[in-house]
Amino acid sequence: MPIPNPEPDPRHGVYGDCGAVEMTLTPNPANAMVQVALDAEMAALEVFDAMGNRVFSCDKGGKNFSFNVSSWPKGLYTVTAFNKETSVSKKLSVQ
To answer: I want to staple 47 with a disulfide (CB 3.0 to 4.6 A). Which of 1, 56, 81, 87 is the partner?
Structure first.
C-alpha cells in the first residue's frame, strides 16, 4: 500500500503549494551592514552564532531587515526569520 504524501508543514518554511519563503542576504560574506530581503511578511528576525547563541534579534516585523556585523567575530551564523505560520533560515559568513 503506498504511503500518501504528507501536507507541507509551515514550520519548515513551506506555504502549502506556494513553496518555500525566499530570503536573500546581501552581501554574503559580509563585514559591515547586512541587508535581509524576504518575499513574505515576517514578524521577527534572529541571528545565531555557530555555538547557538543568539547574537541579534529584531521584532519590528516586515519584509526587510538590516544589521551591522562589523564588530562580530569571523565565522558562520544562522539568520532566521519567522512568523506564526512559518520560518526560514540561511547561513551568513562574517569575514
So the answer is: 56
Cα–Cα distance between 26 and 37 in angstroms, integer?
Answer: 8
- Number of domains into which the chain is organized: 1
In terms of C-beta distances under 8 Å and separation of at least 24 residues, what long-range contacts does 87-91 make, across chains too?
Answer: 87/11, 87/12, 87/13, 88/13, 88/20, 88/21, 88/22, 88/23, 88/38, 88/42, 89/13, 89/23, 90/23, 90/25, 90/28
- Residue 66's domain comprises 21-94
Provide the residue-wise pLDDT of the chain in tens; the chain has 95 residues. Answer: 444 444 444 444 444 444 589 999 999 999 999 999 999 999 999 999 999 999 999 999 999 999 999 999 999 999 999 999 899 999 999 99
Backbone angles phi, psi at 72, to 5 degrees: -80, 145
